[in-house]
Amino acid sequence: MKKSVIIGIVVVIIVLVIAGIFFVMYAGKECKTDTDCLTKNCFTAECKNNKCEYSPIADCCGNDRCEVGETYKDCVIDCPNCDDINNCTLDSYDYHEQKCVNKPILNVICCGNDVCEIGENYENCTRDCPNCDDKNNCTTDSYDYNEQKCINEIIIPCCGNGICDESAETYENCLTDCPNCDDNDKSTTDIFNYETQKCEYIVDYFTDDFEDGNLDEWKHIWRENPEDDWDIISENGNKVVKGHGGVDMHRGSKSWTDYTFTGKLKLIKGCVGMWVRATGSGRYEFRICVDDIFLNIEEYNIGSTELSEKSLYSPLNKWHDFKIVVKGINLKFYLNDKLIIDADDKKNTFPKGWVGVKSHSNSEVYFDDFKVEGTQQGF
After folding, report:
1. CB atoms within 10 A of CB 90
2. Domain boundary, last residue among 79, 104, 129
3. High-pLDDT (> 70) share of the chain, %
4. What is the mean pLDDT of residues 277-285?
5. Closest C-alpha among 109, 118, 110 to residue 144
6. Of the N and C termini of the chain, which has fewer Cβ atoms inside 10 Å?
7. Which of 256-259's residues contact partners 24+ apart within 8 Å by CB, and which partners?
8. How far, CA to CA in Å, does 63 sit from each of 60, 66, 74?
9. Domain of 240?
10. 159, 177 contact by CB (below 8 A)
11. Looking at the structure, do residues 96 and 233 belong to the same domain, yes or no?
């Protein structure tokens, strides 16, 4: 081998060894001095432990931080656009939290803040306010700014509000709201009950003011003594019926169910019984005494059961208007329009029957102007 070739080989080996030594010494090292590091805008470079470290320069657009004094307009690189395209928010950038802040404007009326405020309505701010018009001419439409909802108040009276308004509407002037209560039955008085909003058909079962001096229509049954009886007498030119001793009388049909029994009474002494739904097996009796009133269930083969508590009320020696209303299981007794007894018989012991009155033993009572009306409810 030539000497020159050998020398060349040795030189190459020496170069490789030196390069290997340098690679081992400087492997993984970016720099030896600061000048070996890349130059970055808004960053300073420093070579530490053969590594380049870059630090942002404060107040410099391009340091990846939106700083006080910088905005989206003058430093798009660092700062975001905080405009949320909503005129009802106050848009800003929180430099401490490094994020946008969009606060609703609440101290002024602003259409678009999702709140319907006083001064705004559906016409001038559809974005915030609903349309409260319910297309009903019988309602007053408004918006409750406190509750943030529509209010549609029914106008009374108003034909078309779905209510037959008392003292204002009838079938003749508002058939939209009021039904035709004529049942084509001459034996009934047809009325509309504005409270229940239903037709009612009043059947006049009987009326007796005793002015004819005749009691033949009444059924006289049990007497304790021969002198016990009912008499028609004159009081201040008016004929009334007088009961004394232990005597009773009744009238009507065993098929009567719901009805109203009205009249006048004056208790002189003792007790008087007022019967409803009386039958051959028993009856309901409102017993009115000189110092109390109560309701009994009288079952002939069983006995008497008190259905209501005693009401302390004295009707002694004065004329009083009475009204008894029986409807379903409910029985009511009124004296001078005052509700005295309101009781339910859940067993409905006597669902139907006639009416009657009784002057108990050692008692005396006057009656006048009896009337019984049945009520049949319609649509």
Report:
1. 11
2. 104
3. 89
4. 95
5. 118
6. N
7. 256/205, 256/352, 256/353, 256/354, 256/355, 256/372, 256/374, 257/326, 257/351, 257/352, 257/374, 258/326, 258/327, 258/328, 258/374, 258/375, 259/205, 259/326, 259/355, 259/372, 259/373, 259/374, 259/375
8. 6, 8, 14
9. 205-377
10. yes
11. no
